[in-house]
Amino acid sequence: MTDLTLGELASAIAARKISALEATDACLERIARLDRRLRAFITLDADGARARARALDADLAGGRRRGPLHGVPLAYKDLCHVPGLPTSCGTRTPEYFTGAVECTAVARLTAAGAITLGKLNMTELALGPFGDNPHHGDVDNPWKAGHVSGGSSSGSGTAVAAGLAFGALGSDTGGSIRLPAACCGIVGLKPTYGRVSRAGAMPLSWSLDHLGPMTRSVRDAALMLEIVAGHDSRDATSSPRAVGPLVAALEAPVRGVRVALPENYYFDGVTPEVRAAVEHAARTLASLGADVRTLRLPDPAPMIDVCNILARSESSTIHARVARERPHELGPAVRARLEVGFHISAHDYLQAARLRARLTRAFVDEVFGEVDAILAPTIPEPAPALATVTAPPVEEIVRRMGRFSRLTRPFNGLGLPVLAVPAGFASDGRPLGLQIVGRPFDEASVLRLGHAWEHAADWRTRRPSL
Amino acid sequence: MTDSQRAAPGQLQADLAALAGAIERMGGELALGEEPSNFVAALDAGAPRD
Questions:
Q1: Cα dihedral across residues A57, A62, A63, A67: positive or negative
Q2: Inter-chain contact B43–A242, Cβ cutoff 8 Å?
Q3: What's the CA gap between B10 and B6, in Å, rounded?
């Protein structure tokens, strides 16, 4: 049962072929069997999930279906505030994020009938791309033991890939949805900045934070996004723009859609297998009628500098208390990254914010005048061995972090929608990742392209052996 | 925490100098009317026509 997609399970529950309690128990059994190794969960709410499942089964027996996710067990990155459960944000303090309002995205999924299994492991304070955590254990990769799950939404990636939950929420400030999606061979969507409310989720960088779905199929990502997207008065950055149908738009043909393969930056330093996988995806989309061409993109280096200024200033401000009063509680790399932000001037921060606007305007005008979407690798190499990337000294760890997330970070600064989809597998079985980048608020197009690619590929139903 | 796990002060200064230098180089081109909120306007302007 846990091999089903979220959409397949929802349909089976609606048809009364599977009960919500059976689905919940299947997840809980799998978590009990596998999570000692995987370490995807920080908090498991087995009793709460079973109680909710029984109530939803009773509702359905009485003819009441709450919504499209009725009875589907989900789990949430442990920076989403869920009433009644602690929110550690990956720190050693169980109630690190206190006094928060309920996470709007979680509330919308719950209103649609989802069941909360628990809260998922993450990199400490969401500051790191590998999924290691000194307090809650390093999240393991379900495809290859001892290798990184990707971060910072590490538990989300592993839980969904391993069938511990049917879908999850992650957050993405520099790649934290897309990196674990790529490492774990699942789908992750960073929506347009402002598309999904961040209310009730721990901030890391107000300018760069995004919440989004992590799922086993593109259709599932579209379904979850339809539910969580849309204006929320509790998030001042939330866009009033209408969301539109996303699932219904998946089957539209990709014929004539203009797709770019970058000529610069995005293939620099990637492994031959990664390059081959992305080029194969491009050829596949071309065979379906997409107009694939190469294109020189604006140099991402200035935007990466801008993102570093914004992210470091804002994260240091947000987490100043723990960084200054209890620095010994933080891992060395997290502490080092926060420390930089205390020394950035207001002048440089504001200049970075102004430059971000200029660079985004230029990118949108220049690129989306030519094409509708961009294809690029998500990770430069398959998930590396955890011991290799976390070996000291700390300066080298920070450099490795920068290299591993170099393909995802520019799009946080640009605020564009990006779908991370599996691109196949390396020769040793580790997943490879593809990013599909769209114009602002055009999640429908990146989902459509991702859906077409996913259905043309032959690895769609492959699952890790656990 | 061991010495090898601490960020060296020299490294911190180097990181800061690199970031400040990058902003200084790019910031000289900004016009008076360019403000941070233009970012949201850029996204809206680039969205598909409804």
A1: negative
A2: no
A3: 11
- Distance (Å, whole) CA A27 – CA A25: 5
Give residue-wise pLDDT tens across range A204-225.
999 999 999 999 999 999 999 9
Q: Nearest CA of chain B to the CA of A207: how many Å?
A: 10
Question: In 10 A of CB A283, how many CB atoms?
Answer: 12
Contact yes or no for A357 and B42 at CB 8 A: yes
- Is A354 close to B30, i.e. CB distance below 8 A? yes
Angle between the N-to-C axes of helices A301-318 and A332-341, in degrees from 0 to 180, rounded to the nearest 10 = 100
- From chain B, the residues in CB contact with A398 under 8 A are 7
pTM reported for the whole predicted model: 0.96
Contact: A357, B34; criterion CB under 8 Å: yes
What letter does residue A431 receive in the DSSP assignment?
E
ipTM at complex level: 0.94
SS3 A116: strand
The residue ranges of DSSP E strands in A155-244, in sequence order, are 168-171, 187-190, 211-215
Residue in A394, A401, A416 to test binding to B, most B beta-carbons within 10 Å: A394
Tens digit of each residue's pLDDT (9 = 90 or more) over A46-96: 999 999 999 999 999 999 999 999 999 999 999 999 999 999 999 999 999
* CB nearest A332 (choices: B1, B22, B48): B1
- What stretch of H or E contains A412? helix A409-414
Farthest-apart Cα atoms in chain B, separation: 57
Distance (Å) from the alpha carbon of B10 to chain A's nearest alpha carbon: 11
The 10 Å CB-count burial string (b at 16+, else e) for A107-137 is bbbbebbbbbbbbbbbbbbbbbbbbbbbbbb
What amino acid positions of A are annotated as catalytic residues?
A: 77, 152, 176
Mean per-residue pLDDT over chain A, rounded: 97
